[in-house]
Amino acid sequence: MYDLLAGLRVVEGSAFIAGPSCGLHLAQMGAEVIRFDSIGGGPDYHRWPLAPGSDASLYWEGLNKGKKSVAIDLASPEGRELALAIATAPGDNAGLFLTNYPVKGFLSHEALKARRADIITVRVMGWADGAPGVDYTINAAVGLPMMTGPADDQRPVNHVLPAWDLLGGAYAAFAMTSALLRRRASGEGAEIRLPLSDLAATSLSHIGQVAEALTGGDRPRIGNDLFGAFGRDFVCADGARLIVVAITPRQWAGLVEALDLTAPVTALEAELGVAFRHDEGARFIHRHRLFPLFEGAFTTRSAADLQPAFDAGCVTWARYQSLNEAVTSDARLFTENPQFQTIVHPSGLTYSAAGTAATLAGEPRGAVVAAPRLGQHTEEVLSTILGLDSGAIARLHDRGLVA
Amino acid sequence: MYDLLAGLRVVEGSAFIAGPSCGLHLAQMGAEVIRFDSIGGGPDYHRWPLAPGSDASLYWEGLNKGKKSVAIDLASPEGRELALAIATAPGDNAGLFLTNYPVKGFLSHEALKARRADIITVRVMGWADGAPGVDYTINAAVGLPMMTGPADDQRPVNHVLPAWDLLGGAYAAFAMTSALLRRRASGEGAEIRLPLSDLAATSLSHIGQVAEALTGGDRPRIGNDLFGAFGRDFVCADGARLIVVAITPRQWAGLVEALDLTAPVTALEAELGVAFRHDEGARFIHRHRLFPLFEGAFTTRSAADLQPAFDAGCVTWARYQSLNEAVTSDARLFTENPQFQTIVHPSGLTYSAAGTAATLAGEPRGAVVAAPRLGQHTEEVLSTILGLDSGAIARLHDRGLVA
Lengths: 403, 403
Known about the structure:
Two copies of one chain form a homodimer.
Chain A: E1 9-13, H1 18-28, E2 32-38, H2 58-63, E3 68-72, H3 77-87, E4 96-99, H4 109-115, E5 120-125, H5 135-141, H6 144-147, H7 163-186, E6 190-195, H8 196-206, H9 209-216, E7 230-235, E8 241-246, H10 249-258, H11 262-272, H12 280-285, H13 287-299, H14 303-312, E9 316-319, H15 323-329, H16 331-335, E10 340-344, E11 350-354, E12 359-360, H17 378-384, H18 390-398
Parallel strand pairs in A: 1-2, 1-4, 2-3, 4-5, 5-6
Antiparallel strand pairs in A: 7-8, 8-9, 10-11
Helix pairs in contact in A: 1-7
């Protein structure tokens, strides 16, 4: 946790990945992020993966680290009134609301704005028109499963990473802080709608794939080959599978040299009349001539043998490994990564969990803070933000409106 | 383009996806983003996809929309001096620098800070320790290719979406605006390092997959099945392939009803002693019992037949289509998506390109602005930011230091 957003208060009413990961990024940069949770938990409160032998969600507790939880009966008018009051409480550093509730529901921007004119709402959505959509359905609609997977198998391949959700969370955090910068200057609030459908469509435009599809049709399925340059997985003498990627001239030169392929590659260049080093596209076009040379070089050497040569040559490479191998043995990614700290989680388990993706060089990293228990901060929030006294809070409890 | 960041000036020295997409997000929210480009273009200036019959990169022009370009000989000491001077120019709304140059190079934070104490540097990296890494190598190291693809094929499957790069770009934009909020309050600058390796490791922690791998080992490869709830691709009577996803009780109920599966699903629940509606995990555990029912329901109906029933029942679904089909015929994603505007690009092509993923409800969307030509803003930047007169600029041109 860092302090870039220290002093800010963000209220979050959201579930699944995009909204909660936005709140997580804000919290881990120092904001006070107050979730309102349904009593008993929202629709993602038991989402898999679960803690072994339990219904505690490792997913939920991963996405809600470092936040506060106020548990409210959001189905009742009075519970909704409380949620609106918390979201729109005064203060220059408050009035920031993050949600994935529907545009027209009780947490509409109009309802929020009626109570606080300069409210900033960031609303994560499925489709831009309000239709239901999740990462996996949006991904099918933009065609990526048709391009993914072995070239010898035409079945569509879904991604397992909820990439659009994760991108949505980070972009939502950017949108929230950007809107706050404007509000600080002009006093204006904003309603920002962020549909996964537009995240996917705009991203594929930004990286040139929309233009490619408009001007050249569909990119064929090319398996694990890197599009437009040189890259693929290769199997070593010891059976280890490595990926190497060479996009820049330097990456290419380092790779060819580390594999002792200078002579055959030079011969191939002469035969084809190309210069691979300064023409990444030629490496892609002629990859089926290059691959046998590389396959041969890999099959004669073990990964342990190649690693020092690759590192000395600044080759861009990695070994394919399973996530379990990575989390139990990869020092750079996990076991000695200073972004990870071992903490006790609400599931009761103690395990290593991550802070921010970013490192602020020279600044203290701060603690990774566990997710709250549901309602852990109900009294604190009702008392400090809404100014309710203990009697009033007790009555809300007794009536089942908060927990 | 929106105005949330109007008045800010960000200087960008970066290539490939993560850095430039960060600059793009900042530019499309209204910041002035000035790239310095190598004379003749940097290492991604001819990156595929290319415009048909040309070496103009659709990728580069997608990622650099709406920015300014000052072309400098960055290999020369005097060119580097110019770059440092531009990046560290004074002003409360300036002093924001985005890069993927190495930590210890001429654009080190120390070098920048020596000229401007409150500089904010956001530095996108491969591995946290400075080793070279790109999206595809990092992805292999965190194990996702081992989980991706058909369950009957054990080959690792690379993703085709540069998900970590895109996430890095959005997170970097969040980090930049967050650091500016702190600087506005305290005057402090920051060096923010954002390695793809930490983006991947922390993201998999945030969604519970690190905890899962630590406590339960590797998630098996499950093809296109949605983990932990109900979802998969199914083929309709007309051959169309649809994905349906049911995570919440409402999504499940809507899907079962739309497919007229209430009776057989109820019978299966009685047999198994489960209640699928309120137990998404049971839907996953027993998916191989559920799938035949669904397969049968899909094979008797066409996509055109199912669509109204799905939409009426708020089913979360989509049709698999290719990107070319989507960009040429999908109104919601592309052909009538107001985030897209048809503009003339530096390649000379005219095609539809995207603005921001976010919509600011009720605010003018503004124009999508094409990428610059290399050096299009050299004179403007040297004159307005460094205060050079036309004679001084001409001398730099004559000596080949700028273009």
